[in-house]
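Thread: "does anyone have the structure for this chain?"

Original post by V.I.:
We have the sequence but no experimental structure in hand. Need at least a predicted one for the grant figures.
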Amino acid sequence: MSLAGYPFSREAALRVKETGYSLEGLLADPNPEPRLCRLARRRGLDRVLGAVLGEIPDGPAHPLAELFSYPLARVIVSCIDDDLLTRRYALAEAKLAGKKMAREDLADLILLARDLGADPQAGQGGIRLHFSDYLKAAARMKSPGWKLVNRSLEAGWVAVTGQELARILEERARERVQRGLPLKVPPEICDKLRMEISRVEEELSSRKAEERVDLGEVTEEAFPPCIRVVLAQVAAGKNQAHTARFALTTFLLAVGMDVDEVVAVFNKSPDFDEEKTRYQVEHIAGRGGTAYRPPSCATMATYGNCPGEDRLCRWVSHPLSYYERKVKKGGSG
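Reply from O.Q.:
Generated one for you, tokens below.
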């Protein structure tokens, strides 16, 4: 297997270097390789736009253009220098790599793992990974099955399946892609990519608008009963169930509060830990690439977080719909 198909690999970086081409050369005007430059720029734009939209398209491409599209994409992301875009880009590259990994055999997965700094062992007893390598990736997995206490651990080695190894490598790929971003890019390089940058900024702005309820200043009087109750209990210093905290956090972020403001909401909780709370709020806000949406009214009821309906509740199915209607009515019922 050639690791050049994984653009974040050391082999891919070496292949780029061996071609003798430079980023500045590809963007020069006039360009000695106009077709290569055109294809690489188009694919680089596809990579970043795909990240904004949720998925980088995987299709046949000119081999050299594919190699160069990755550093070009990283430059585009760096010129824009937006935290959400950076996180989504790293996640999208990892997801694309994950699709490719699903088609690899075990020997090739192990080659990729070693490139990514892990050293899985395969034998008659199956696949095992040293617990230190396992924890670096599994720490971000939320399913209880990934917790080390729930794994088979023997002499420092954790048993994993081939599918689990691929998922771990996907997480390590995300970390490698995100490492070093944003790059320090000379302004003249960004200027040469202005068309691509403008296209991404337009799509990113549109996507952000879709993911946020933009109703001006946050109006607490318009909060639905479920959110008001949780907010009041948090303000009173009462501990809340994880589902209630999640619902409150996602709702406050969705209606326009920033991470600092949401973290401050929880500072009266008996177990308040600012660093831990900030990490959790940033994750929910999209630091890992996925911005979470508030749960629906049905989900709130399922987890016992609905204190009872008021008149407006009967006409909506989501807390954000309640808030939007209330704000448009000026906060009245």
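V.I.: this helps a lot. Residues 3-100+182-207 form one domain.
O.Q.: and Strands lie at 121-123, 126-130, 153-154, 157-160.
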